[in-house]
Amino acid sequence: MRPLMSPAIVHLAMFLHVILLHPSMLLAQTSRNNLTAGGDTLIPPYYITSPSGDFAFGFRPLDSKSNSSSFLLAIWFFFDGTVVWFATDASSGSAMVAAGQSVLSVSTTGQLSLSSPGENNPLLWSPSSDHGPVLDVSHVVLNDTGNLQFVGGAGGSSVVWESFQYPTDTLLPGQSMLPGTKLQSRSADTGFSLGQFSFIVQGDGNIVMYKMNTAADSGGPVNAYWSSGTCCAGNTTLFFDVNPPAYLYFILSDGSRGNLTTPQPLPSTAGFYQHATLDPDGLFRVYIRPKNTGSKKGNDTACGYVFLDSQNRYKGCIPTFLPDSCDGKNHTAEFEVQDSPSANWVSSVSYKMHTFVTEEHCRHLCLNSCSCAVALFNGNNCSEVGMLVAGWQENGTTMRTLVKVRTKSPPVQMLPYILIVALAVLLLVTTCTLLVHCYITKKARKNYLGTRVFTHKELCRATNGFSNLLGEGGFGKVYRGTVKSLQPPEVAVKDLGGCKVEYKEKEFENEVRSTGQIHHKNLVRMIGYCKEGVHRMLVFEYMQGGTLADTIARSERPCWSFLAEAAVGIAKGLEYLHEGCKSKIIHCDIKPDNILFDDKHIPRITDFGIAKLLGDQKTQKTVINTIVGTKPYIAPEWFDGVGKVDSKVDVYSFGVVLLEIICCKRATEQPTDAQAPSTMFPLRAWVESLIRGGNAELLVQEEIEALAYMESVERFARIAIWCLQKDPSTRPTMRKVVQMLEGEVEVDFLPDPPMPSGLSAVLSSGSDTRHSSSMVHAFQVE
């Protein structure tokens, strides 16, 4: 039976569904626990993990939403992908981007390096300290705190470098910032280029936040927009404490302590991620969120703002448009400044202060500054503010609060939508193709399961004018042909025109119907038929492997495993005819010439020209006036006068064929043993005498494989003799024959009575093995 769908089409549809519904499945991932010197390497997209699995270090795709070939060398929260540290380019300060063929390795000298593909593997990044390059590294580990440590030095147990000492834009619980350490913001939440803001613990003891002047002629940071007010205290250290959660504090050189944040009460710190990040908008935020979710911001609110904490709206909100307006493009037309009167603000995060400006000029300055969310105008002073912290409503105040809000939606990024539409169209086309293919295949399958009607002209053309004769039997000639519309195209056409049995119209239709019902791996399938005028033809599959008669007649005996499989296959085919069809079918002419092999050497039973349907009330009383069969494969009951003929005639014929398979001799061939009886049908008596005499090895002519399986050979021989019993009731059914051949049922000992001589006397009246139609008797088919 043909498959309903091509495997290639099914795989294409599954691939498209994976792309549309599960793009993350396309990213290969694997994990290790550490890297050791002298051979260990790491290549994209691989990584190592911390013992708890909370953190990962290695190659992370630059854009996790696409099949990117660019990677960051970074540390991130494993379950939500938030990056907390990344390797930077020493000259630009931006993230180091590695290609898909880059290699991270620890050399035998203990130097960890990231190299790019190409000639001589140019160095992309290698960690360095205040004392120069980091050497003598024995192994690299990632702790459960998210701290990446290079262990080595004297004794191989010292920490020679750690990521906690060289932060990028994020602090983790347990991490501290010594004097001279700084955080540098990124350009955007999804970007890793250098941003405009820095958070610095200065050597003078002050903790400050600067907005970097990005002009080409700038020499460094300008006016700080926030400070801790601890200038000149000296040796200030900032700490991020894990207990209590989200607690940032600093200690001055004299031991005094100051708090930057208020501790947040949590049921347990183990179930939460915590990190403090200098965000792209210049605000230093502390994040706390459950480990089972990747969300870190609230839902969108009106005017393009989101709440810092969706559970507590009084903590304030941030504008969602800031990253868009700071992407280097002119977005002035997308915003406007609205006046919010009667409000006085005493605490805010101001980036710039302008003096001697008008209100209109103040509006203009805020609109053209990507960092400005609100402008506070008071008199002739204008402050660009990123975040309002504390204030109150006050009638009559001179302060004007100018809030920047959107006037229209931001420009739509078309590329993602184009890709989605293209994939949707591709999926639609594929689905339509599958439906059409399914319809065509279903139609072909219906034709496959049924029977096709051919014209005489079609079959004449297919057989080249009936010129390629394959064989001739009592029920017509068989020709080889080619029908190009079939797959495979080769067919065997049986012409019943010379048949001596006269078919009536209805009888021929019944014959076609019975044959068309047969679909089994050990039966030759009938493809169709021709009933045009006086022409009556059947079209079958063409078998390329020859007949069983040819196989037995070879000078070199086939191996036993092949013969045994052929015997079981033939038995299963007959079992299907007798018990598997809707209406029982008796073959009536089982012989080696009617058993063919396909291109995979599977035996197939053919020649159903004389098969009759049993079970139909109109057929049970049919009188058959011609004995059809081939000596010596005809069962004795055919010669008993008016008798009942049933499926046991096929069992008898199979017994003869099974003996021929075992001995590789034809039933009429004289055995080489001089002690064998010389009768018309000596094979059964010769085999039985060898089995009873304990000389079963003579059956296989010293074939090596068969000698190794003599138990199987003897079992097959005893089954054949049981099939050849004169009394049909003592013969096994084909189902039991299959079970005995496969070893599922024990075979009884040989019966005592020998084969009656009367049958030999009848059969000895002639030695012609051709089909006989001269014996006319009446038999009731039961």
Automatic annotation (TrEMBL):
Question: Which UniProt keywords are given for this protein, alphabetically ordered?
Answer: ATP-binding, Disulfide bond, EGF-like domain, Glycoprotein, Kinase, Lectin, Membrane, Nucleotide-binding, Receptor, Serine/threonine-protein kinase, Signal, Transferase, Transmembrane, Transmembrane helix
- Sorted alphabetically, which InterPro entries does this protein's record hold? Bulb-type_lectin_dom, Bulb-type_lectin_dom_sf, G-type_lectin_kinases/EP1-like, Kinase-like_dom_sf, Prot_kinase_dom, Protein_kinase_ATP_BS, Ser/Thr_kinase_AS, SRK-like_kinase
Its chief place of residence is membrane
Where on this chain does ATP bind? 494
Q: Name one Pfam family in it.
A: Pkinase
Enzyme type, top EC level: transferase
The record's Gene Ontology cellular component field reads: membrane
Its EC number is: 2.7.11.1
Which segments constitute the Bulb-type lectin domain? 33-163
Q: Name one GO biological process term.
A: response to other organism
In the bilayer, the protein is annotated as: Single-pass type I membrane protein
Q: Which SUPFAM superfamilies match?
A: alpha-D-mannose-specific plant lectins, Protein kinase-like (PK-like)
First and last residue of the signal peptide: 1-28
**Entry's transmembrane regions:** 414-440
Q: Name one GO molecular function term.
A: carbohydrate binding
Task: Give the catalytic activity.
Answer: L-threonyl-[protein] + ATP = O-phospho-L-threonyl-[protein] + ADP + H(+); L-seryl-[protein] + ATP = O-phospho-L-seryl-[protein] + ADP + H(+)
Q: Which family does it belong to?
A: Belongs to the protein kinase superfamily. Ser/Thr protein kinase family.
Name of the molecule in the record: Receptor-like serine/threonine-protein kinase
What is the species listed in this Swiss-Prot or TrEMBL entry?
A: Urochloa decumbens
Q: What lineage does UniProt assign to this protein's organism?
A: Eukaryota, Viridiplantae, Streptophyta, Embryophyta, Tracheophyta
